[in-house]
Every structure is written in structure tokens, then in C-alpha cells.
Amino acid sequence: MKKNYRELAKRFEITIFADPDDPNWFCARVPDIPTIFTGGPNPTAALQQAQEAIEGYLTICEEDSLPICKPKPAYTEEITVRLPRDVHRHLLRRAERQGRSIQEVISEILEQELHNQHTSSRRRTVHSNRL
């Protein structure tokens, strides 16, 4: 009997990052399942593609009687942050304009900032290696 792996797939850590070669594409990888590498035109789509790939991978493992890997304990997906009212209002308006949830907007902003910091750090490293 086939299991539905949707809930299990949501527990795997998924890393989303901007494609260094294509600014209009976001990549997704699953550290616990290195063979999964997918993406989408935005972080939300990349996440959805990765979750679907995990479900497919787990289904194939079951069909082929291979061991089903379990996700490593991950960080919680929820944090509580107190925002100044004007920041909250700005984020809410942005979310409404884009037809998205405020959580999606905040998540995308954080992901972009982390990517920018990583890219900036890599540029400094590359630059210092050339000296």
C-alpha cells in the first residue's frame, strides 16, 4: 500500500538560493537527499518543486523496497519577531500589492538579504585571492 509522503516531505530541510548564472531563477536543494536539485522562478516555486521532488523520491524508495530516509532534526520554521508598526504596515502593504502573504514577503526579503551577504562575502574572498 502506497503511503502519502506529503507531510514527511515538509519536514526535510530545503535550501533555496538565487541561481548565480540566472537572476530570474531560484535553486532548491535538499541536504539530506543530495540527488535532489530543482528550482523555480521564485523562492516559493522552488520550495514547492523541492517538496514534490522529495515526495517522488520517497515514493520510489518505497516502490523499490529501498530504505526510506528520515529528515534530520531541523530548525523550527517559526520565529516570533516584534516589528515597529511602520515596518509592519510597509510589509503588509507590499504583500497586498503582490497578492501574497506577509510571511512570504518577509521570507523572500530575508532570503535575498542572506544571498546578498553570501555573494558579497564571496566577492571579497575572490578579490583577496587575486592580490
Automatic annotation (TrEMBL):
It comes from the Bacteria. GO terms for biological process: regulation of DNA-templated transcription. InterPro entries: Arc_rbn_hlx_hlx, Ribbon_hlx_hlx, TTHA1013/TTHA0281-like. This is HicB family protein. It comes from uncultured Acetothermia bacterium.
